[in-house]
Please model this.
Amino acid sequence: MRAFWTALFLFCLLIGALVCYGIVFARFTDTLASALAALPDTPDGDAAQTAALLCALWEKNELLLHLSVPQGRLDAMQEKLTLLFSYARDRDAIHYRAALETARSDAENLCRFETISLENLI
Model:
């Protein structure tokens, strides 16, 4: 009977950890998507500073995302945010707009591609 209660406790602990992770993941992706949506469509004003803050936010939380998002998708998103910052800093309006649209699209799709797998954990 003791083994049953131990197994039940561990199962509940696992489910609780997955729920907490899901909440943290959803909160981060919502923050990222809303910050990208708040960026101006042209690289004027403080767009470069905001893009730099987005890159810093991404780097801070990237380790968390490794648990459930494939490495290739994370690398692609990192590259898009870096390009977005570069184009905003250089005030390259055409490339900035394209990078902003792809970054917004990828941020919205990040939750959709979330899957917890052994490959991601390793």
About this structure: DSSP finds five helices and no strands in the chain. The mean pLDDT is 86. Residues 2-38 form the longest helix (37 residues).
